[in-house]
Design a protein that fits this description.
Elements lengths: L1 H14 L8 E8 L8 E2 H8 L2 H13 L6 E7 L2 E6 L5 E7 L1 E8 L12
Antiparallel strand pairs: 1-6, 2-5, 3-6, 4-5
Keywords: Signal
Length: 118
């Protein structure tokens, strides 16, 4: 009984089709984050603009703006901090310029069945 079971298992493994890996489409995007609405002391404004939370949040928006199914693969560059002065000379609004993000999407037809085929 054991040999029959093992033989059947080996035969099914040999005859089974190989599993295809998921393929992705990649796209690199360069964009700028938005400055906050309110002015802050310049040092605090630069710190807030370069926070990883801020970069991650905008990177997600950059990829989602490409269309359905696009996700962040990696953040390649956080860019440069750029500040605009406000009416008070000690205060500024800062943002990140030239943030480079690599986005990915599952290549159509590589996962599951295609509609109408089957």
């Amino acid at each position: 009984m054991k040999t029959t079971f093992i033989g059947t298992l080996l035969a099914s493994l040999l005859l089974a089709s190989p599993v295809q890996a998921t393929e992705y489409i990649y796209r690199d995007i360069m964009a700028n984050t938005l400055a906050p609405e309110h002015c802050q002391v310049e040092g605090k404004a630069k710190e807030n603009a370069a926070k990883s939370y801020n970069i991650d949040r905008f990177s997600k928006k950059f990829c989602q703006s490409q269309g359905y199914g696009w996700h962040v693969d990696e953040i390649k560059s956080t860019g440069n901090t750029v500040c605009d002065t406000c009416s008070n000379p000690q205060e500024a609004k800062c943002r990140q310029q030239d943030v480079v993000v690599s986005c990915k999407r599952i290549k159509p037809g590589t996962v599951g069945m295609l509609p109408g085929k089957g």
